[in-house]
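This part of the workshop introduces the protein records we will be handling. The structure tokens are whole numbers drawn from a learned vocabulary of backbone shapes. The record below serves as our worked example for the rest of this section.

===
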Amino acid sequence: MDLDAFTALLTPRGREALAEAQELVGADPVAAATRLRRTHDAALTSAALTQARLRERAKAKFGADAGRMFFTPHGLEQATRAEVAAHRARRLGAAPGPRVADACCGVGGDLLALARAGCAVDAVDTDPLSVAVARANAEALGVADLVTVRVGDAAEVRPEAYDVLFADPARRTSRGRTFDPLAYSPSWPVVLGLLGRARVGCVKVAPGIPYEFIPDDAEAEWVSYKGEVKEATLWTGRPPEGARRATLLPGGHTLTATGARAATGPVGRYVYEPDGAAVRAHLVGEVAELVRGWLPDPMIAYISGDEPVDTPWATRYEIQHVLPFSLKRLRAALRERGVGNAVIKKRGSAVDIERLRADLRLSGDRTAVVILTRVSDKPTVLICDPSPPA
């Protein structure tokens, strides 16, 4: 979809075609195109069907709003989930009505959340199509009076003229998704330069960002949504500087570094799997303290304990059997228990899970959780009940 095709969707004729296309979502693509072509030209038909499919996919991130919004394929892929963007906007909402510079807005997922939180947002993006989509989204969701969007280079933004700088650098290259901050667009040196001039800075980055790229004076926050780590955010210009934080959504639970260090010890009655946000933020010691547990291996983020402690920060399993890793012994142990379905997890193990599942040749009507890990640096298997005890 190019800019001309998208602009055509905003006309009365285009909106009519899009409404018809949305009614055909899920139908045979050829049949849907044939039906739309009866009343619309080929270019408008293609744009409408593409947009309808994107709106359907976008429901996972934007809920009911997706049916009124506009997207590009890459823009939707990188757009922040609405709940995560709203959380970030709430954190920025300490000052009433802050003026925010959005240095690379994409299709506008974050600028919409910021505007809904009462921020006045000036946004730029180098891609004219993304700018047009972001403008249309601001109009569609009723926040256009708080938003300006223009084609521009992030490097030309003057963060010192605003209360807050927000940046979500693109993490895709011509070869696909990149995990190297130096390959971001705008580049990492440009992002750091903007942060250095901002009163308050907020940068969305990949959750796997290497620690050496995090500025010493930044608070790093990892956000998990329904158990899946979605992103990390770097905050500058506000305390606590240099802190680490993990946040769980939609519950809003927050855990910060206290310096807790987990003890090590033998496998207990239970094993706790910390949420990925806590693991990324190096807060496993803090989670171990919450559950009154310890680490069976100091290098692996599984916690063990003898008490059934409930916490949103970890999933708890009751251990039924501990054995050194051996395909033959594991197969025999699962067959003895009548396990036909195994949920296999691993940390610190090089075993290919799908290959192992095939090699186990399971049969039976029971389910078990099989954890491949290391205990005192030895490959170990924990066979557990499939759900936390009451």
